[in-house]
């Protein structure tokens, strides 16, 4: 079918106009036919000047083009920007052989070239449905984890965070969509996803279980068979022979003499298998030192840091796919983590609650911002916890008593995380805690810390992991 015939079929019944943005990647005018087909179904796109007057996350974006590379760059930029992270996005014109997993995850709809009218209409309905769902929310631009929940919720509530195999990734997997929405590395993204699953906001389903180097967390740790005596990998396997009369067991090569098996211990010629001897199994024989053993010395070799470990020393990571739960959907709808949490209060509104300490908290926020910047620049092993008080504040209690309870909660946080901990209060119900991650001892998981604090404090808290980059953004919004 020619491009003219294709467009004529589309024009049989023009659709009502839709407010959308068209981003066309032209390559020698090849994309013109696809763009024309989109305009027939969707109507003329919004002008650039008009876009600035609308809620950009509610305006569908349609990318038309053939080259996958610039399309994926555009998708990554959209998903990594908080203002457009929830935006409904479609791609039209890709070759059937170019629909990569990353493209499929970052775009809501992907249509190949010369898409028929019914497919374009279905795409139109999908984008409008997502746009309507986004319009009902107050996007959590200051909280990437909550923004991720909102993304999944607006995709008809059945969106999933799916890992993609990537040999260049440290864990052999990546989470393209979640990494963009959270603006974090793969390891940090997995921490956040697992923490959301621990709090039953996401439901995880394990799809793989990997063994990692305990030092650098690389998945490239092949297991080698080494000689137990000289540790060389130059070993082979042989059948073993067991001489019944003297009880000697050894590799077959030690028994063979002039083509006939002769016991090297008692020099008896062995004639009848099953009567004089048998072959109990295969054994390891070293080609370097001649040592033989029933089992080799198994060692996992890290390709990246060139270190050897016993298999039981390897770390384990579970790779899962994650879907939103009912609790996660409620958090996405309300834009809050729990029904008792008040709207975030600007820092200067805390003066009445902390008349003597406003300057102290402002200084703490400034120190925290500097700490995050330094940790990111120098790649310090820092862990960030977001602590939210979920106990409703009792109006009958005096402000002083409530402040004392909050201070006591801060003290418990510091005592459990150790001396190298900074706690800064964002507002009356929200803290950020920054702890140096001791790679030998590790740090408490959010759920473990949450249990310890709630066992001691009069105020009930919820604690979640937060990527340093997300903490920096949160601090900048509250500064």
Count of strand segments: 23
CATH architecture of the largest domain: 2-Layer Sandwich
**Helix segment tally:** 15
Q: Which parts are unreliable, with pLDDT below 50 for 5 consecutive residues or more?
A: 339-358
Oligomer designation: single chain
Q: How many angstroms does the end-to-end distance come to?
A: 59 Å
Strand-pairing-aware structural class: alpha+beta
Beta fraction: 15-25%
> What would the CATH topology of the largest domain be?
Alpha-Beta Plaits
- Determine the fraction of residues in helical runs and give it as a percent range: 25-40%
Major beta-sheet overview? 5 strands, antiparallel
Structural summary, described in words:
The structure is a single chain. This protein starts with a helix and ends with a helix. 35% of the residues lie in helices and 23% in strands. Strands 10, 11, 14, 15 and 16 form a five-stranded antiparallel beta sheet that branches. The protein has 15 helices and 23 strands. It has three domains: 136 residues, Rossmann fold, CATH 3.40.50; 79 residues, no CATH class; 141 residues, Alpha-Beta Plaits (2-Layer Sandwich). A hairpin with a 6-residue loop joins strand 17 and strand 18.
Task: Offer a few descriptive terms.
479 residues, alpha+beta, Rossmann fold, Alpha-Beta Plaits, 3 domains, 5-stranded antiparallel β-sheet, 4-stranded parallel β-sheet, 15 helices, 23 strands
Helices, strands, pairings?
Layout: H1 3-10, E1 21-24, H2 32-42, H3 48-51, E2 61-64, H4 68-80, E3 89-94, H5 101-106, E4 109-112, H6 117-135, H7 144-154, E5 160-161, E6 164-165, E7 173-174, H8 176-182, H9 186-198, E8 202-212, E9 223-226, E10 235-243, E11 249-251, H10 252-255, E12 256-257, E13 260-261, E14 277-278, E15 282-286, E16 292-293, E17 297-301, E18 308-309, E19 315-324, H11 326-334, H12 358-378, E20 382-389, H13 399-417, E21 421-427, E22 430-436, H14 446-456, E23 461-466, H15 468-478
Parallel strand pairs: 1-2, 2-3, 3-4
Antiparallel strand pairs: 5-19, 6-7, 8-19, 9-17, 10-11, 10-14, 10-15, 12-13, 15-16, 17-18, 20-22, 20-23, 21-22
Helix pairs in contact: 1-2, 2-6, 4-8, 6-7, 7-11, 12-15, 13-14
């Amino acid at each position: 079918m020619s491009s003219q015939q294709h467009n004529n079929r589309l024009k049989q019944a023009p659709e009502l106009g839709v407010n959308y943005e068209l981003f066309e990647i032209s390559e020698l005018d090849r994309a013109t036919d696809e763009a024309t087909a989109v305009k027939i179904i969707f109507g003329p796109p919004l002008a650039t000047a008009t876009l600035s007057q609308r809620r950009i996350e509610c305006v569908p974006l349609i990318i038309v083009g053939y080259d996958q590379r610039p399309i994926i760059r555009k998708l990554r930029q959209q998903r990594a920007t908080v203002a457009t992270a929830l935006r409904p996005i479609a791609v039209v014109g890709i070759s059937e052989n170019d629909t990569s997993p990353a493209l499929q995850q970052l775009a809501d709809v992907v249509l190949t070239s010369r898409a028929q009218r019914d497919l374009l209409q279905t795409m139109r309905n999908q984008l409008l449905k997502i746009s309507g769902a986004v319009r009902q929310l107050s996007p959590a631009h200051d909280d990437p984890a909550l923004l991720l929940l909102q993304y999944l919720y607006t995709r008809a509530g059945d969106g999933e965070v799916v890992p993609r195999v990537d040999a260049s990734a440290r864990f052999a997997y990546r989470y393209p969509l979640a990494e963009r929405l959270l603006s974090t590395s793969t390891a940090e993204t997995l921490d956040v996803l697992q923490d959301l699953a621990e709090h039953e906001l996401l439901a995880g389903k394990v799809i793989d279980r990997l063994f990692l180097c305990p030092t650098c967390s690389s998945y490239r740790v092949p297991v080698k068979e080494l000689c137990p005596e000289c540790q060389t990998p130059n070993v082979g396997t042989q059948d073993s022979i067991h001489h019944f009369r003297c009880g000697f067991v050894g590799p077959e090569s030690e028994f063979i003499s002039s083509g006939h098996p002769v016991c090297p211990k008692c020099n008896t010629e062995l004639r009848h298998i099953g009567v004089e001897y048998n072959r109990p199994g295969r054994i390891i024989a070293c080609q370097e030192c001649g040592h033989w053993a029933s089992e080799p010395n198994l060692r996992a070799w890290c390709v990246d840091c060139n270190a050897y470990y016993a298999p039981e020393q390897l770390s384990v990571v579970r790779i899962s796919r994650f879907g939103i739960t009912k609790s996660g959907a409620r958090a996405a709808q309300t834009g809050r983590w729990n029904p008792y949490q008040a709207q975030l209060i600007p820092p200067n509104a805390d003066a009445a609650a902390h008349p003597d300490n406003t300057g102290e908290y402002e200084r703490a926020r400034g120190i925290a911002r500097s700490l995050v910047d330094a940790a990111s620049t120098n790649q310090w092993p820092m862990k960030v916890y977001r602590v939210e008080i979920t106990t409703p504040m009792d109006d009958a209690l005096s402000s002083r008593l409530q402040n004392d309870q909050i201070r006591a909660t801060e003290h418990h946080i510091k005592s459990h995380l150790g001396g190298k901990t900074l706690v800064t209060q964002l507002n009356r119900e929200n803290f950020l805690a920054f702890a140096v991650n001791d790679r030998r001892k590790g740090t408490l998981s959010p759920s473990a810390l949450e249990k310890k604090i709630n066992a001691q404090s009069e105020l009930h808290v919820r604690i979640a992991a937060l990527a340093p980059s997300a903490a920096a953004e949160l601090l900048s919004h509250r500064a």
